[in-house]
Amino acid sequence: MQPDLHSRALAAHTLHQFRTLSPLTHCMTNDVVQTFTANTLLALGASPAMVIEPEEAGQFAAIASALLINVGTLTQARAEAMRTAVEQARIANTPWTLDPVAVSGLDFRRRFCLDLLALQPAAIRGNASEILALAGMSAGGRGVDTTDTAASALPAALALARQCGSVVVVTGEVDYVTDGQRTVSVTGGSPLMTRVVGTGCALSAVVAACCALPGNALDNVASACSWMKQAGQLATARSQGPGSFIPAFLDALYNLNAEEYA
Amino acid sequence: MQPDLHSRALAAHTLHQFRTLSPLTHCMTNDVVQTFTANTLLALGASPAMVIEPEEAGQFAAIASALLINVGTLTQARAEAMRTAVEQARIANTPWTLDPVAVSGLDFRRRFCLDLLALQPAAIRGNASEILALAGMSAGGRGVDTTDTAASALPAALALARQCGSVVVVTGEVDYVTDGQRTVSVTGGSPLMTRVVGTGCALSAVVAACCALPGNALDNVASACSWMKQAGQLATARSQGPGSFIPAFLDALYNLNAEEYA
Amino acid sequence: MQPDLHSRALAAHTLHQFRTLSPLTHCMTNDVVQTFTANTLLALGASPAMVIEPEEAGQFAAIASALLINVGTLTQARAEAMRTAVEQARIANTPWTLDPVAVSGLDFRRRFCLDLLALQPAAIRGNASEILALAGMSAGGRGVDTTDTAASALPAALALARQCGSVVVVTGEVDYVTDGQRTVSVTGGSPLMTRVVGTGCALSAVVAACCALPGNALDNVASACSWMKQAGQLATARSQGPGSFIPAFLDALYNLNAEEYA
């Protein structure tokens, strides 16, 4: 069965909510994508904050609207701070999102992510290799790249969503978003997005922020995917390569017009 | 009493000095803004260096022209290295500047910043909430954003400047700069600057570098504010959103012409 | 004797190989240049990965095509992870490259780099001051800048290449590349490249990736220098300052055409 396409009217509706509520998004993310992640959230109208010291991370996770955990440059010290933040987030009912970067190839971060799954992430966002690895199905990853198509990881995403009670996103040429019952697909984007570091990581931050919105979680998360694919497509049309893509992408996110977009 | 507007002739004069002396600026700053901070200093003609290991930070603070301490992503280990650097900076008469990012909402960094105030920063740069919190006056901050206007923090800035013997900058729609005796205001800029991460942090680095210049410290620091507001205004006019703002801003800083500017 | 100019036909040939093989490049680099380094590698068609936790860094260095060690923001903890990664890289025959950032002025990192030299880097890339310091010859550095010309460090580069069995690159207005027997020079580039943070560090990452290619190591490394100088020159012609240089540079790398380039 082919998943339904996420409606652009719904994406436009969520965008309006997002800008109105401006979620305060606590990002514990990797060293490579911090700036791009912050600028992506700012362009969409959210308020990002990167807080990493264990005491502070716990304090801040409780007052933030949403929390992102991205394990791209995980260290032992950072893992402990992340765990504290997730625990405080749960006590405060702050939804948290997991980005299991390169979890298929590296044991330390896979163990860490599998442990965290017991703490009920609101959402999980990864490529096919990462979602397959997290669901305990066979997978091959080469660094942070995937060697599987998003559709091939759909059974793993469904299993993971049911196991954790999470919305699971598998990104690729087509994105799939599932809550274990219903699945939607999101099309658009461009191959140039894979030649710029951090587009996936930044999407995870937007997914995290969308988990703070009222309404249906699956639809809100699918809207995040839709904005990024839409901006990626617009930016590709206006750029000469991955360098000019970056400013064009942030401009496109900033200028996404809820009405025009629908 | 309305503070005097900082003269653009003075800003142009300081810019000429800045480019001639090219202050070697030791930045101990947060993970999110490192690149933008370095590129801002380079565009203006300074020489940035990020050195963070305790032994090295102490050694380097003593040979640098100026030191910046920004607590945006403070950790226990980083706090100790910063303290060592500030202590060595004082012994070597290297002026140091404090950026108390989000100090109003997080206890660990507030304690750290309050401790550091005893070590006589040459300058302090924050938004209204941060300056109010540092002065021990009531404040509300939401993440790194301020919920107060710069003018409302002017009494706190004056008190802080007198207490520490520092030049204090409160940034906002209008920037205020005071040494506790004299206060000047700086206008310009654009709201787009708040949709790009690091414009405030980068200003703090430029303020730090300006503390290495000869002449009046208050005037030199106000000139730093003036360059950033001027470049922000030029860049906004030449950009389609926060993405294209970033390169346009660095270009504008690089091309600020001392004569034309005056 | 004047070193031969590296031929552009050879640079074009190496570029074709680079894009075909897409080296998986493990970068352990400084906090300031992570994003720009990753985007540079992606623009050229390589696959970057930043992995820093000691257990993971060792595991990943063994499966990567190449490893980069850049000491720009070295810490005690990072130094230990880097040493583990280099040791595992050697066992797995993964070539590793050293960028000794600012080694001339800071004792902690100089001791670390001198220790690492015993572990036979495939390549070393630095400015004149850094190469002079590493070779134990007198040098003066001011922060990360050099106070010596590249040509003046050529004897040091030759000595270092023979001592370590490495290809050594001294960058400057002209780049020199030597394996201790043969030396080639690479011209091009523009002064604007020194007003953007990370162009040297990104070159080191490309040098590291080129060490994974088949063929002559000296020629492959010189080709990396050639691509960066060529893209720098193109980008300077298309930009209004260091801000617009950055996207133009990444676009130029992405669009470098092997045939046209020759």
TrEMBL record, chains A, B, C:
Keyword Cell membrane: no
Pathway the protein takes part in: Cofactor biosynthesis; thiamine diphosphate biosynthesis; 4-methyl-5-(2-phosphoethyl)-thiazole from 5-(2-hydroxyethyl)-4-methylthiazole: step 1/1
Keyword terms: ATP-binding, Kinase, Magnesium, Metal-binding, Nucleotide-binding, Thiamine biosynthesis, Transferase
Enzyme type, top EC level: transferase
InterPro entries assigned: Hyethyz_kinase (IPR000417), Ribokinase-like (IPR029056)
EC number annotated for this UniProt entry: 2.7.1.50
Residues reported in the UniProt entry to bind substrate: M50, G198
Catalytic activity: 5-(2-hydroxyethyl)-4-methylthiazole + ATP = 4-methyl-5-(2-phosphooxyethyl)-thiazole + ADP + H(+)
S-adenosyl-L-methionine is among the record's keywords: no
Cofactors demanded by this protein: Mg(2+)
GO molecular function, one term: hydroxyethylthiazole kinase activity
Binding positions (ATP): R125, T171
Family: Belongs to the Thz kinase family.
Protein function: Catalyzes the phosphorylation of the hydroxyl group of 4-methyl-5-beta-hydroxyethylthiazole (THZ).
Protein name: Hydroxyethylthiazole kinase
The species this protein was found in: Citrobacter enshiensis
